[in-house]
Amino acid sequence: MPVGPVHWVVWTLARARQVVPTASAIVSEDPATPGGPPAGRPTVTRKENGQGARKVPGHPKKVWRTPARRAENQPMEPTILTTERLLLRPFEPADTDAVLHACQDPDIQRWTPIPSPYEREHAEGFVHRIVPDGWRFDTVYAFAVLTRDSGELVAAISSISRGEGAAEVGYWAAKQHRGRGYVTEAVGAVAHWAFTTAGVERLEWRAEVGNDASRAVAEKAGFVIEGVQRSGIANKGVRRDGWTGALLPSDLGLPTARPYLPART
Description:
single chain, alpha+beta, nine-stranded mixed sheet, 7 helices, 26% strand
C-alpha cells in the first residue's frame, strides 16, 4: 500500500550535522474520514515553559515572521494547535521512541530521505536538536500530531520557509493510524495557522510522482495540483519527477496582506 507525501522539509537543517530527520520530512496515507470535523479553524495557544516562552536572538534569515514580529526581532514562539480530535505541538524529547518506531515503516523509508536503517541517533537528533532549532531560527515549524483522547503520536507535519511569504508543507502518518483522516485534519489546521499567524501567503506541497496517498491528502485539504516538476525530488542518491501543488489563503476564504492578481486567461 503506498504511503503519502514525500519531501525533505528539514533536510537542510540536518545535513550539516549528518543527522537526517524524520518527522517533518514526510509520509502519510490518510483518506479523509467521512463526516469528519472541519480542520480550517484550529485553536491556537503558545507553548509555555513555566516561565513564559523563551526569547532567543534571531537568525539572520527571517522570512516567516509577520511584519510586526520582524520589527520586534522576535522568533516565532512554539505553538500548540487543537482541532476536534487532535493536538499539534512541537516535538519533545519524550517523543523519541514513538518517532523511532514510526520510522521503521518501510514505506516511510521509501518515500522520504530518512536513513535506512533508521536508528535511535536519528530520532534523537530530530527531537533534541533539529526541531528546537527550526522554531528558534524561524526556518522550520515541526508539529507532533497527537490524539486528544489518548495522547498517542499518530502523525507529523511541518512547514519550511521558502521566502517571500511562501512555505512548504510536509507530513507522515504512523502506519497503524492511517485511513482515519488525521493528516488531512492536521494539514487544514496548520494551513489556517500559517495564513493567519505566520505571514504565509502561499503554502506549497510536493511529492514524488506515484505517491498517490500524499496527493490524496493534499487534494482533500484543498491544494490545487499545479503540475509535474521534472527531476523535482532528490532522495537517496537519485532524482525523480515530482508533483507540485499549492494552497492560497483565498482558497480558505482568508485575506492576505498583499493582493493576488491571477493571470487573465
